[in-house]
Fold this sequence. Notes:
It contains five helices and no strands. Helices cover 70% and strands 0% of the residues. The chain is an all-alpha fold and 133 residues long. The chain has one domain (4-131). Helix 1 (11-32) packs antiparallel against helix 2 (38-58), helix 2 (38-58) runs antiparallel to helix 3 (73-93) and helix 3 packs antiparallel against helix 4 (97-118).
Amino acid sequence: MSLAPSATASPVILFHAGAALAALGLGFHQMLRPKGTLPHRVVGWTWTILMAGVALSSLFIRSHWPKVGPFGPIHILAAITLLILPLAVLHARRGRILSHKRTMTGLFFLGLVVTGFFTLLPGRLMNQVLFGP
């Protein structure tokens, strides 16, 4: 593992990666801790803000993926995340806890875990950081 490949990355990419890693850690934390408590709500709001930051910052990252205009397929996931996050919060505020849980869990796995595996593909920055150039 070496952080050297990230030395040439843009600030947007560094923010995106940092926010995604923080959200990944907090997401795992949330799943293991008691629900409905004040700490759950504080960590949940922090996670929600981080996820919004991850999704918004991804809109400014240009990659080698196929594109339609300035956007590629990964940007669809960013748009979905930005639409679903407020819905998940609304579920909790209206007492629809099962819907809240399913929505947040889905966002965690699709928006962080699955997409995180794509960052490990050869040629991607996280692949170079973890496995070398």
